[in-house]
């Protein structure tokens, strides 16, 4: 089955022609990009982690061998492979091997567990899963066995490191066939959406559109051959992947440093040792780094740019970045579906501190609309919709989500409420949809509610976001116990930990209530209910 079965998934002919004419889409593939860099500067260092230092030529050779291994498993161009690899150098040979073989990575996060991985496997029709043996104290091999038990199509599990009961990445027999031609207009990989309703959606990104987004981002962020980009957030996430991220860095012929976790201790040590020039973090991590830098001196003098994005960075915190860390702040407001906004490095300080930047492309179409779909004047809040040369037109294999999330003329409804300022700068005001943005991790209220309802002692549940000084937002579950049930918060949390979900989805707080308010006419919408519960909670100053 093809990756793009929904005709809306591709850009209409006239848009594709425009994006090619303007030079955004250059007909380049991931595989060709790596080949070109390895030919231009074979000996330059491409990727570094705690145990590896690989040049561009070495990386290409490993990726070519991996491509042969992937094909040797019997996988065919277009087949999907779930990639759950943390911030280690081996991410690159594995993923570029997939690209060279015409295979389609599905990027899972290291935090994802059985339930989420099984959903990706089913939705993507994935045939294989690639993991590392262990990372940061967690063994991924038993998890992969569980996933495989529930996903009949998942024929192969490949392990980087000690394979255990699975296949050894370094010992896959080569297919011995030439690598396939890869169409630059085809889907290169599936990214995971943070999504507000139900389960995560899969985001199809093509070679053409994605390479444009990180090539242009590398320019905006000033990346060149002397830049050293550190991936501090999980590399599978769209921000460290492409804004400009590891891919933008490789495009620019720069060096990528893989940071295993974003703690100040680990990150500052690596910044000092590797002379890192640019990295990106979510607001809570930026807060921790500023605290750590104020307490003990570290040599982070090589750092020129700290990017902050994924959730709102309040101006008071933004103003402290230069004084405490000694580098330029760049705010990044992006989404895996496409549109990415940056403050520019030479913007006036008030723009850098007070806005979330402006779009990458002159052909990013940005609409700010009221509830009835009419444009609002600059400076007033409205719904952000967008369309452009690197914003998807549809999710993978999800007609219901597509009907909700895209207009008939192909605009993506971001769910964000923004103000547009003169010059196209955006200020994020909030969100229309119901997800919790917990330190940049997006949690769907509906997904968590469905899991809570599976508990016998729970009659009803509503999950809402509560403002949190450190996380930005935390999750709070309002629970009505079933008749006769006695339930306590720790029990609810332990139950959620048995559901095979990423730990960040366990509610931070559980509040028991006797009933949910309903209007005189009867049932109210979940959105209204959540809004009421949030308001009541905040009123009571809990
Ligand atoms: C407020 N909200 C923000 C910001 C994202 C670069 C940077 C981030 C992402 C990302 C990304 C925000 N202020 N600075 O993919 O390439 C919220 C919005 C948005 C949603 C997208 C990138 N930056 N957000 O966070 O797909 O609500 O991408 O719609 O995970 O995060 O989430 P995600």
Structural write-up:
GO terms for molecular function: acid-thiol ligase activity. It comes from Paracoccus alkenifer. Pathway: Siderophore biosynthesis. The protein has 18 helices and 27 strands. The strands form seven sheets. It has a nine-stranded mixed beta sheet, sandwiched between helices. β14 (278-281), α11 (283-295) and β15 (305-309) form a beta-alpha-beta unit. α2 (30-40) packs antiparallel against α3, α2 (30-40) crosses α4 and α3 (56-72) packs across α4 (91-100). Among the domains are: 30-44 and 55-182, Rossmann fold, CATH 3.40.50; 435-539, GMP Synthetase, Chain A, domain 3, CATH 3.30.300.30. Ligand J2J is lined by residues 194, 238-239, 242-243, 309-312, 331-336, 340, 356, 414, 416, 428, 431, 437, 440, 442.
What's the arrangement of secondary structure elements?
Layout: H1 13-21, H2 30-40, E1 45-48, E2 53-55, H3 56-72, E3 80-84, H4 91-100, E4 104-107, H5 114-124, E5 128-132, E6 134-135, E7 138-139, H6 140-150, E8 156-160, E9 167-168, E10 187-192, E11 202-206, H7 207-220, E12 228-231, H8 238-242, H9 245-251, E13 255-258, H10 264-274, E14 278-281, H11 283-295, E15 305-309, H12 315-318, H13 321-325, E16 328-335, E17 338-342, H14 349-354, E18 358-359, E19 365-369, E20 381-387, H15 399-405, E21 412-420, E22 426-431, E23 435-438, E24 441-444, H16 445-453, E25 458-468, E26 472-481, H17 489-497, E27 509-512, H18 526-539
Parallel strand pairs: 1-13, 3-4, 3-5, 5-8, 8-9, 12-13, 12-14, 14-15, 15-16, 26-27
Antiparallel strand pairs: 1-2, 6-7, 10-11, 16-17, 17-18, 19-20, 20-21, 21-22, 23-24, 25-26
The structure holds ligand J2J.
Ligand J2J is lined by residues 194, 238-239, 242-243, 309-312, 331-336, 340, 356, 414, 416, 428, 431, 437, 440, 442.
Keywords: Ligase, Membrane, Transmembrane, Transmembrane helix
Domain AMP-dependent synthetase/ligase: 35-396
Organism: Paracoccus alkenifer
